Amino acid sequence: MEHSDERSTKRQKMDINEGLITIDLKWNNSLYQLLVDPDDDVLILKHKIQMETEVLPERQKILNLKGKNNVKIDDNSKISDLLIKQGKPLQMVGSREEDIRSVNEKPEETDEIVNDFEDPEQQDNDSFENRDVYLAKIKRRVDEYKVEVFNPPRPGKKLLVLDIDYTLFDHRSSAETGAELMRPYLHEFLTSAYEHYDIVIWSATSMKWIIEKMKLLGVHTNENYKMTFYLDYNAMISIHHPSKGVVNVKPLGVIWQKFPEFYSSKNTIMFDDIRRNFLMNPKSGLRIKAFSQCHLNRSTDTELLKLAKYLKKIAENCDDFNQLNHRKWEGYNP
């Protein structure tokens, strides 16, 4: 009976017709499990691999990647066309940019990492919010993605969704302690926000690293505020942008549909240093100034103090956040 249950679990795992599927990948003696949509293509798979390994798609060489019925596989091939053998992970060869730079002894260029695809004032004319293909992906995340709630949502509170890297934490600079990499006034900011907002962390990395970073920063079990839950890259979706190519975004609809009695576009705001993460919910996103080169900016960065005041003002004076223009947050006067 035990073997029968095991086979049933594996069949369900590999069944491309039921929600997300799991692809095992081996790289540098580590095994990764990637959740993908069967309707996604190989290029999106490579972007998910990048999130786990930091190896850029153009540097990835995936071995034993074959198509069903000997179909030729390229970046545009659908995941559902792949021949995925049970118990045989895909093998990937490739090097991270950090390792390549280290070998070549070239200085790291962080500007390319923190810069967005677009100018801060440039309006994106492409609407993605109501496209059926992306709404279907959101529904799959709602159905398949498991949220571990650390502290239950509080009735009447608004929702603040925060990125980590370059928003709360400079993850590229070198330092001896996590406190040196932490954005100034982080704990004061979170303490102030917690009065009116439930706080959620959503990062384009794995859950393991989110928890480690939150512990490192002293956020995970802070006595002055509480985290509601964390979301990792598996809750994100990939979309095809006509000029930007494949991009991964954070659709707040995942949260709104999982917790409809607490959160909606009327009471949610998200901070991120990358504007493209707001493509599925542009009115709810506030692009925060990126925090990098902490050794140079630690003594002058007051972004979180200013944003704490903004959060307090809109919480106390605005019943519908859809009416706000977060691009002009610094000049907000209720």
From TrEMBL:
Protein name: Ubiquitin-like domain-containing CTD phosphatase 1
The Ubiquitin-like domain, residue ranges: 21-99
GO terms of biological process kind: regulation of proteasome assembly
This enzyme's EC code(s): 3.1.3.16
SMART domains tied to this protein: CPDc, UBQ
Broadest EC class assigned to this enzyme: hydrolase
GO cellular component terms, semicolon-separated: nucleus
NCBIfam families: HAD_IIID1
Catalytic activity: O-phospho-L-seryl-[protein] + H2O = L-seryl-[protein] + phosphate; O-phospho-L-threonyl-[protein] + H2O = L-threonyl-[protein] + phosphate
UniProt subcellular location: Nucleus
Any one Pfam family match given in the protein's UniProt record, by short name: ubiquitin
